[in-house]
C-alpha cells in the first residue's frame, strides 16, 4: 500500500516516517519528542531531526509544554493537516480501486477479517507501554 500510493504522492514530498508522525499528531496532539520516539520505537535524536524537517516545511510547530516549560510539544499546523488529508485521500483512492477489482469472495473475506485485524493492531499499539516479561519469555503466537 505504501509504495502504490507513491504513484500519486511522491516519496520526496512526504516520507513515510513523516506521514506516521502526522497521523499520530492528528489523533494525539501536543506530544513531546520523547513521546513520539517511544510510540514509534525510534531514537529520540532521529525523531528530533524528522520533527525539525517538518517544522522547516511548515507541517508542524514546536511550542512550550505547559506542564514543563523546559520541554516542547509538537502540534500539526493547518498545512500539516492538509498534507495529511491529501495523503490519506490518495491512499484511500488506491485501496478503493484495488478493492473494487477483487472478486466478491475476496472482498467478503477481507471484510470479515477487519475486526480481528483492528484488535491485533490495538494490541500491538498498547504493547508499547507494557514492560517486557522480566524473565525474557516469548509470548506464544500461533498463526
TrEMBL record:
Q: Where is the HTH marR-type domain?
A: 1-129
- The keyword Transcription regulation appears for this protein: yes
Q: Which organism is it from?
A: Rhodococcus pseudokoreensis
PROSITE patterns recorded: HTH_MARR_1, HTH_MARR_2
Q: What is this protein called?
A: MarR family transcriptional regulator
Pfam families per record: MarR
| InterPro entries on file | HTH-type_Bedaq_tolerance (IPR052526), HTH_MarR-typ (IPR000835), Tscrpt_reg_MarR-type_CS (IPR023187), WH-like_DNA-bd_sf (IPR036388), WH_DNA-bd_sf (IPR036390)
Q: Which domain of life does this protein belong to?
A: Bacteria
* PANTHER family xrefs: CONSERVED PROTEIN, HTH-TYPE TRANSCRIPTIONAL REGULATOR RV0880
What does the UniProt keyword field contain? DNA-binding, Transcription, Transcription regulation
